[in-house]
């Protein structure tokens, strides 16, 4: 996985953790997962400041600054940090699915020699969202299946 994708996932997890949670159960679950993520950030990357994203989590400019700080700190290859960020996203998806952005695969600011994306199934979401992607070799997207959102009984 491209390091910038990992950092983008971390920034998205911080943003989701700062905003998600409607019910008490959802708030507690997201808060617990987010506390772990912030703990890893504080322990390993104390110079990285997430407060600006917490203050305005929808701000892409602030997420970009956080991504840059994480890359500069060397956090982009950190498996523990990536795992904590992914756990926040899993919890948000489980407890507050409407708060999670619905995209099967999202690529932002990726540079690669070759990129292959396959077997993506998304329900009520975009299949692939790729922005500012530079590939010098083969770039293949195949077998993307997007279904409409399931209807909910009233």
Protein model, in words:
The chain folds into two domains: 1-100, no CATH class; 102-154, no CATH class. 48% of the residues lie in helices and 25% in strands. The protein has helices at residues 3-19, 24-44, 51-55, 60-73, 79-95, and strands at residues 103-112, 115-123, 126-135, 139-147. The protein has a two-stranded parallel ribbon. It has a two-stranded parallel ribbon with strand order 2-4. The longest helix has 21 residues, at 24-44. The N and C termini lie far apart (42 Å).
Percent of residues in helices comes to 40-55%
Structural class determined from secondary elements: alpha/beta
Give the uncertain stretches in residue-range form: 149-154
User: How are the strands of the largest sheet arranged?
Assistant: 1-3
What is the count of β-strands?
4
As a whole number of angstroms, the C-alpha radius of gyration is 16 Å
Mean pLDDT: 74
Q: Please describe the biggest sheet, giving its number of strands, its sense, and whether it closes into a barrel.
A: 2 strands, parallel
What is the number of independent domains? 2
What is the tally of helical segments? 5
Shape label: globular
Percent strand equals 15-25%
**Helix/strand order:** HHHHHEEEE
Distance between the termini: 42 Å
């Amino acid at each position: 996985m491209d390091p910038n994708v990992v950092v983008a996932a971390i920034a998205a997890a911080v943003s989701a953790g700062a905003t998600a949670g409607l019910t008490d159960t959802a708030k507690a679950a997201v808060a617990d997962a987010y506390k772990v993520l912030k703990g890893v950030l504080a322990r390993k990357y104390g110079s990285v400041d997430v407060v600006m994203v917490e203050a305005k989590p929808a701000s892409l400019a602030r997420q970009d600054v956080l991504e840059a700080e994480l890359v500069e700190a060397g956090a982009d290859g950190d498996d523990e940090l990536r795992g904590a960020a992914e756990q926040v996203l899993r919890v948000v998806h489980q407890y507050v699915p409407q708060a999670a952005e619905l995209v099967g695969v999202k690529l932002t600011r990726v540079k690669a020699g070759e990129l292959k994306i396959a077997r993506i199934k998304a329900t009520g979401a975009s299949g692939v969202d790729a922005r500012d992607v530079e590939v010098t070799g083969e770039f293949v997207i195949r077998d993307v299946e997007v279904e409409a959102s399931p209807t909910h009984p009233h």
